[in-house]
Design a protein that fits this description.
108 residues
Length: 108
């Protein structure tokens, strides 16, 4: 049985995960009105993603406008593909801004 309140939409968007002054490239795999699933870019170093940790995410909407989301990690696991370590991270969006909700609804 599906636990999610909102339907996930498959998507392929580049974004940045921001921690303090550091920025990391990520790929958004699917989104909903209150959640987002990202994959980190391959790396030889490992950063542990702990459920409950806050993360900021930034990406461009199709309109060219930049959107910043404040998120909380709900789950994370690591994979070791041929090109390096990646992390798959599921996040809850804290107080999604109206522009984000509009973007999601336009994708349906």
């Amino acid at each position: 049985m599906e636990k999610r309140r909102f339907k996930r939409i498959k998507i392929n968007l580049k974004a940045e995960r921001i921690s303090g002054d550091e920025k990391y490239g990520v790929l958004i795999e699917d989104i909903s009105e209150n959640g987002i699933h990202i994959i980190t870019t391959p790396s030889n170093t490992h950063k542990k993603y702990t459920p409950g940790t806050d993360i900021d995410l930034k990406f461009l909407l199709t309109s060219g406008e930049t959107l910043n989301l404040h998120c909380k990690i709900r789950w994370a696991y690591s994979k070791i593909p041929p090109d390096g370590l990646t992390d798959s991270i599921g996040m809850e969006i804290i107080d999604p801004p109206p522009k984000y909700i509009e973007f999601i609804r336009a994708l349906r």
